[in-house]
Amino acid sequence: MKRLTPALQRCLFGLFSTLCSATLMGNALVFLLICLDYCLHSPMYFFLCHLSIVDICASSNVPHMLRSLLGQGRTISFAGCGAQIHLYLIFALTECVLLAVMSSVRYVAICRPLRYALITIWRLCLTLATVPWALAFVSGTLQASLALHLPFCGPCEVVHFSCEILAVLKLACTATRADKVLIFAVCVR
């Protein structure tokens, strides 16, 4: 792997720190405004609030990347790698399903405006917000456990800023075709 120069590392550290801070503050502001302003207590903003929470949680691997850019530890433990894969899968899948739910709610608002209030009752909204988290937890746990229970041989070093599931599968000593098909199937659904 090609090493970055120290000046470029510091430049990237500053850039990514700024972007990460802006993203976290923006999502926190969206969350706070939706919670504080009663006018924003509608189904679409309810789901937008959940999307902000997912985005805040999904940035959990950025501190490791920033530390790596500063040259303070480019390694991650197996347990840390497993946790990072598991959390990334949960948050990525939750975001995808939540976006699909939001598009369905928007469809109802546009195509059935007179029935919108009857269709999007709060019990349904709570269910539609809980289902993405549950599906993502089950799917993420399944994918991460399948990938991390493979036998690994040789130098088990992932040459990435973060522990990604496909990079970990490359380190396995056995065939990983079934795991890759499962990952693809989950991503396509």
Question: What fraction strand?
Answer: under 5%
Secondary structure: number of strands: 0
Q: Termini separation (Å)?
A: 34 Å
Secondary structure class reads mainly alpha
Poorly predicted spans = none
The largest sheet is:
none
What percentage of residues falls in helices of 4 or more residues?
over 70%
SSE series? HHHHHHHH
Mean pLDDT: 85
Shape: flat
Mind telling me the C-alpha Rg? Answer: 20 Å
Number of helices: 8
Describe the protein in words.
By secondary structure, this protein is mostly helical. The protein contains 8 helices and no strands. It has helices at residues 6-36, 43-58, 62-69, 78-111, 116-119, 122-148, 165-169, 177-188. Helix 2 runs antiparallel to helix 4. The longest helix has 34 residues, at 78-111. It is flat.
Which SSEs are present, and which pair or pack?
Layout: H1 6-36, H2 43-58, H3 62-69, H4 78-111, H5 116-119, H6 122-148, H7 165-169, H8 177-188
Helix pairs in contact: 1-2, 1-3, 2-4, 4-6, 6-8
